[in-house]
Design goal:
Blueprint lengths: L2 H8 L10 H8 L3 H4 L20 H7 L6 E5 L5 E5 L10 E7 L3 H17 L3 E7 L2 E10 L27 E11 L6 E10 L4 H13 L5
Antiparallel strand pairs: 1-2, 2-3, 3-7, 4-5, 5-6, 6-7
Length: 218
């Protein structure tokens, strides 16, 4: 399995008493900006909007969280990572966005890799198409009910997945789209990775993905 996809699937195993740097780096390495580095053309890439310019207020609204904290940008890439508010007894949301000018062929190749890996990991894989936009997604769901009972005094870490039945469920959605950025932008690969305990994570990731593609977030 390619290193980028392995890290994406391993994200759920990250644990620490506070949002750890390892988790931020792990989710940052899970996107096309680093995944396809060895396949890129030597040509100068087309200009795409910088993720550091994206409005955290707008993104937070689209994924249904009260606020987002910027955790950093992965070096030599256009990958930005954010975390939601810390609430005792709950997991924080972990968000990553990436916009990369890349060929459709590389996107399709990665889609097949993601599909095969999802089958091996018993995750949900699906595709969507609309008006020139190709999208695929992978959803990993971790149910607290499948874990044993919590130990006395056991607390919920800031990131999932659940380690015992008394903790929240945890879902990781990786949604990737390929289309021309609007208005008058180049064709680009937009990736939204959202790890959350909230319901409807695919809808939230899709809303943010659409907003980036259509220029509502720049």
């Amino acid at each position: 399995m390619p290193r980028h996809l392995a890290l994406r699937l391993r994200l759920a195993g990250t644990r620490a008493p506070r949002v750890p740097v390892f988790a931020v780096l792990a989710i940052a390495l899970a996107t096309p900006g680093l995944a396809i580095a060895s396949l890129k053309s030597p040509k100068k890439p087309a200009s795409v909007p910088r993720c550091t310019h994206f409005s955290r207020v707008k993104m937070a609204r689209l994924i249904d969280v009260s606020s987002l904290k910027f955790e950093g940008k992965t070096p030599r890439s256009n990958i930005c990572t954010y975390t939601g508010p810390v609430v005792p007894g709950h997991f924080s949301d972990l968000l990553q966005v990436d916009v990369t000018a890349e060929s459709k062929a590389v996107f399709v190749k990665f889609e097949q890799v993601a599909k095969n890996s999802a089958a091996q990991q018993h995750a949900m894989f699906g595709t969507l198409t609309s008006r020139g936009t190709a999208t695929f997604y992978v959803i990993h769901t971790y149910a607290a009910a499948s874990q044993g009972p919590c130990s006395p005094g056991q607390t919920t870490p800031e990131l999932g997945p659940p380690g015992c039945s008394g903790q929240p469920n945890w879902t990781i959605v990786s949604l990737d789209s390929y289309a021309a950025l609007k208005p008058r932008g180049p064709k680009a690969w937009v990736s939204v990775n959202l790890a959350t305990e909230s319901a409807g994570p695919r809808r939230a990731a899709s809303s943010l993905d659409h907003a980036i593609l259509t220029g509502q977030i720049r």
